[in-house]
Fold Carotene 7,8-desaturase.
Amino acid sequence: MRLADAYAGEGYSGREVLVVEAAKVGGGRSRSFHDKVTGREIDNGQHLLMGCYYETLAFLRSIDAPIDEAIHFQRDLALTMVKPGGKTIDLACPALPAPLHLAAGLLRMRGLGLLHRASALRAGVMLRGEIERPDDGETCDAWLRRLDQTQAVRAAFWEPLIWAVLNDDPLVASAAMLVAVLERAFMSTRDASRLGVPKRPLSDIYVGPAVDYIRSQGGEVRFASPARSLDLDADGKIAGVTLKSGEQLEADTVITAVPPHALLAMLPEAATEHLVFRDVARLEASPIVNLWATLDRPILGPLDRDFVGLVASPLHWLWDRDRITGEGSKDTNLLSVTISGARATVHDHPEALREVFVQELERFFPGHGASVRSFRVVKEKRATISHAAGTYRRRPPTRSPIPGLLLAGDWVRTGIPATIESAVQSGHDAASIALGLR
């Protein structure tokens, strides 16, 4: 929870800032921790940035985060998908202006037949006319069928993209949210579609520099200080926050940066009956399961990629963390595995997930010869909100119905899916309102 935004430090805007955080450390769902199983500092989940994450990059620059050393951005968009048996489908976009770079990349995609490449190219050409459509009620599946996309190009390009950016099944995910991403990533500049992979732990990139910045501007950060309730005055305006310790904090502006269920738990009971908060209560969560496996040898080396996607697999993405970070040794290789929209696996026992991992490695990299030395499962049961069709209208605006209460978080109504970019944009929007800039 924020009682004003991190940028609104006393030395910067004249506003007194206090950040109260329930956990002992910051970061929320973008954090890292020391893992005894792998013996490494690992993230709660693998994050990926895009060149169009303008709000995120502005935030990182503002807090003096080590962007160049901590995040590797591709020169041009490149992506490798692995099919069962080990053959690959490779997308490499050339250095052409957007959206010609995507059109050329799709047309030259290796590992797909001409019919399927032509199908993808046709969709790319149509995007400019489709950009205001579909509405939020249409699913990605229905939209792709409307664009006559073949099953092969769906499996190799569209569906991995949907799982990655929407964290939901293409059968239910909103096509409007997908198009919002496509517009930002592929229709503005070539650099906007580049992928950025964090090379350092997330806490080193986001959390440490942010806390240092707030304190350097005269603000205060308190950890292990969970909030119990939002306090209103007799006129129904925000008056402050009561912590679980019983301490009462007075404030005429409160910015919350908590998940939907936590916000509802802090509201006065009468406020939860407002239509905005009733819609918030209807938002559902979509989980992510992350697997961390230490192998006795690398398996992605021959592909010369930091990460690859798997076509038609319960495991969506494999990341070679040793290659990304430059750590590891000749005898070990740390893999991070992402399972998005993991409703079917989030309650599985770690041994069952290990068995799936071993089977999928053999299916996609036959004869790899690697053995699993350690295995760790990290589950984020509320990783994001679900982006099911029809959900966007339930996401609340930054200005809440309660005067003085502003809402932030990746799940508020930012116009894009619940990503780190959405989270940062929501914080910027809330800070602008708090400072009277909009």
